[in-house]
Amino acid sequence: MFRPKIPTMPTPTGHVTPPAVVEPTTIVPAAQTPQPVPVATAPAPSRPTVQLTPGTALALVSGGTAVVLVVGAVLVSMLLAVAITGVSVAVCAVVLRSLLASETKRR
Predict the structure, then answer these.
(1) How far apart are alpha carbons 83 and 88 in whole angstroms?
(2) Which residues contact 60 (CB under 8 A, 6 or more apart)?
């Protein structure tokens, strides 16, 4: 009654294909051909030159401006949150101080 019933694996139905047999193949190396010797010409530049068109320069400037504005907005909002928290803690401290001072004057 309290024993769990373990389900049995269902048997596959329908058309079952047998597993494919993989036959090993031999690898034959290709004939080695000598590389042609390059002719001495002007050396190729090690770095490709970057050409900025007015469109890409405008996109870079606008992208950089957007990043600066977003980062600035996040930093200003964090500074504002810290300032508001500091002011609220200071107000709570003043209220508690006045409450404690009035309590000691009553006695």
Answers:
(1) 9
(2) 52
